[in-house]
């Protein structure tokens, strides 16, 4: 099949009209021969935009291009607060054009196929683009359709999901309309981005119902596929305290497999008892969807068996193709997939690429730093920060395992500024220098 035929179901590139004649395709092929960039970036999300800003400084804007079909760039971490009515959706969005570093070419199209042996990629409209260096930042895909009854079920009331821009505002409506019954929050049986988000939403909902006098009507349940509440013991212990105090039930190893939205029933499988399912009536259901690598990476030469970009855990250089690099949610880096992790990765990858460009061995090493502000109320956050070994790696010289108001302001007010003005502009490489400074200051 031609690359265009395998392009998937996403939006088409602007220049391609259905039934485009062969004259158009030939013209594209002629143009394609000229399409070459020193640095080509796939994906214009968190990782792609921050790396394109950094690469612009290394090789000049005219030598960098970003392939990204979407007109809008979202600061996704804000969605936790949007669903709770604490922020508006618009505050998380900016036009892609505005975040694209000036002078960098925005190729408004989906990539359909990667051909690293020939140093080129194919766009969905059959255009070939070649590169000297390739940075893959395609993110993670949401798969609501893997749950029977979804996504159609979202047309019914009492169900929402903060994970997609299409359903996040609906979550807030469902939360406000809640009357009584089971309030079920789910966690899928796949890798996810920001593993804390599925429960942050629950804590905010609990706080909202308490504020509006409905708390006693809600039987709140967190049904998670995991065997623990959080992967780092220090924070897991703190969360379990909160869960006890707020009378929330946690059911481990439960995976949502079906939603009967017309009857408001959720069907779970018990991962420890194959074949055993449980059906639960809900008053509100918050779905965290199964996730996986973007289609274009599945069975691609740059991917591991599961479909994640196969990179060195310390340098972020591809294990097989030395001129290919990966960053963020689409990689197989064994750490929690977050924007905070990408900040730290972007600083390391910038150094790695500059060494590779000089034919030297990369030296700077990524330690797996990632961070998850666990929002536990309308003004409270436990700021979890940790590394590959799941050991806390905290920036501030205070116990971050406690719920703190200061950390809520970090999450709601400081981090968005740092995102738009620091990370996306290629100036924020994570808090490591501050951590050293602040901890030194105390000793
Ligand atoms: C509800 C929620 C809460 C979160 N909370 C936090 C938090 O508190 N702290 C934190 O640090 N992180 C948080 N995150 C995670 C964070 O947002 C992500 O980890 C981060 O944005 C991932 O960046 P990325 O560049 O890897 O992918 P993305 O930013 O998702 O970008 C991927 C891009 O690739 C594009 N793309 C996909 N396929 C193709 C294709 N075939 N061709 C071309 N382009 C393509 C997409 O359009 C997209 O723009 C949260 C996420 C969610 C959803
Ligand atoms: C394919 O899409 C790219 C990016 O939008 C565009 O530059 C190119 O002209 C398109 N080619 C064809 C044949 O439509
Ligand atoms: C805790 O929740 C359960 C189930 O919703 C309820 O029966 C019980 O009364 C609650 N206990 C307290 C102290 O609120």
UniProtKB/TrEMBL annotation:
Lipoprotein keyword on record: no
Reactions catalysed, as given in the entry: a quinone + hydrogen sulfide + glutathione + H(+) = S-sulfanylglutathione + a quinol; ubiquinone-10 + hydrogen sulfide + sulfite + 2 H(+) = ubiquinol-10 + thiosulfate; ubiquinone-10 + hydrogen sulfide + glutathione + H(+) = S-sulfanylglutathione + ubiquinol-10
Cellular compartment(s): Mitochondrion
Key word Flavoprotein present: yes
Cofactor: FAD
Primary location group: mitochondrion
Gene3D superfamilies listed in its UniProt record: FAD/NAD(P)-binding domain
Keywords: FAD, Flavoprotein, Mitochondrion, Oxidoreductase, Quinone, Transit peptide
Cellular component, GO annotation: mitochondrion
SUPFAM superfamilies for the chain: FAD/NAD(P)-binding domain
Occurrences of domain FAD/NAD(P)-binding (ranges): 37-156
InterPro entries (alphabetical): FAD/NAD-bd_sf, FAD/NAD-binding_dom, Sulphide_quinone_reductase
Documented EC number(s): 1.8.5.8
Chain intervals for the UniProt region annotation (Disordered): 1-21
Entry GO MF terms: FAD binding; glutathione-dependent sulfide quinone oxidoreductase activity; quinone binding; sulfide:quinone oxidoreductase activity
GO biological process: sulfide oxidation, using sulfide:quinone oxidoreductase
Similarity annotation: Belongs to the SQRD family.
Biological function: Catalyzes the oxidation of hydrogen sulfide with the help of a quinone, such as ubiquinone-10, giving rise to thiosulfate and ultimately to sulfane (molecular sulfur) atoms. Requires an additional electron acceptor; can use sulfite, sulfide or cyanide (in vitro). It is believed the in vivo electron acceptor is glutathione.
Protein name: Sulfide:quinone oxidoreductase, mitochondrial
Organism: Nothoprocta perdicaria
Gene that encodes it: SQOR
């Amino acid at each position: 099949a031609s690359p265009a035929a395998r392009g998937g179901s996403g939006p088409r590139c602007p220049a391609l009209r259905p039934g485009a004649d062969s004259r158009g395709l030939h013209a594209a092929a002629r143009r394609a021969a000229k399409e070459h960039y020193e640095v080509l970036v796939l994906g214009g999300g968190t990782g792609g935009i921050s790396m394109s800003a950094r690469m612009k400084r290394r090789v000049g804007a005219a030598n960098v291009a970003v392939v990204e079909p979407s007109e809008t760039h979202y600061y996704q971490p804000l969605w936790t607060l949007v669903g709770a009515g604490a922020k508006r959706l618009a505050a998380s969005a900016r036009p892609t054009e505005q975040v694209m570093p000036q002078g960098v070419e925005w190729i408004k199209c989906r990539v359909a196929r990667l051909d690293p042996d020939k140093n080129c990629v194919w766009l969905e409209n059959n255009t070939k683009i070649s590169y000297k260096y390739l940075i893959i930042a395609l993110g993670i895909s949401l798969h609501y359709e893997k749950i029977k009854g979804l996504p159609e079920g979202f047309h019914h009331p009492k169900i929402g999901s903060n994970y997609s821009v299409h359903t996040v505002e609906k979550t807030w409506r469902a939360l406000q309309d809640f009357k009584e019954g089971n309030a079920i929050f789910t966690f899928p049986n796949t890798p996810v981005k920001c593993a804390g988000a599925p429960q942050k939403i629950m804590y905010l909902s609990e706080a909202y119902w308490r504020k509006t006098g409905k708390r006693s009507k809600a039987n709140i349940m967190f049904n998670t596929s995991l065997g623990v509440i959080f992967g780092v013991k220090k924070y897991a212990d703190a969360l379990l305290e909160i869960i006890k105090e707020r009378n929330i039930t946690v059911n481990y190893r439960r995976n949502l497999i079906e939603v009967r939205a017309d009857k408001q029933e959720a069907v779970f499988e018990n991962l420890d008892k194959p074949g055993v399912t449980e059906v639960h009536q809900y008053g509100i259901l918050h779905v965290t969807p199964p996730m996986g690598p973007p289609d274009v990476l599945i069975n691609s030469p740059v991917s591991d068996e599961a479909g994640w970009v196969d990179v060195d855990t310390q340098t972020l250089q591809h294990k097989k193709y030395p001129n290919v690099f990966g960053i963020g949610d689409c990689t197989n880096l064994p750490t929690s997939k977050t924007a905070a992790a990408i900040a730290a990765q972007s600083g390391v990858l910038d150094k790695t690429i500059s060494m590779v460009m000089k034919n030297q061995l990369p030296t700077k090493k990524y330690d797996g730093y990632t961070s998850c502000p666990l929002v536990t109320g309308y003004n409270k956050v436990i700021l979890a920060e940790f590394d590959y070994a799941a050991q806390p790696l905290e920036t501030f010289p205070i116990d971050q395992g406690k719920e703190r108001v200061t950390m809520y302001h970090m999450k709601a007010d400081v981090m968005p500024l740092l995102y738009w003005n620091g990370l996306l502009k290629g100036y924020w490489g994570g808090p490591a220098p501050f951590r050293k400074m602040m901890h030194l200051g105390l000793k």
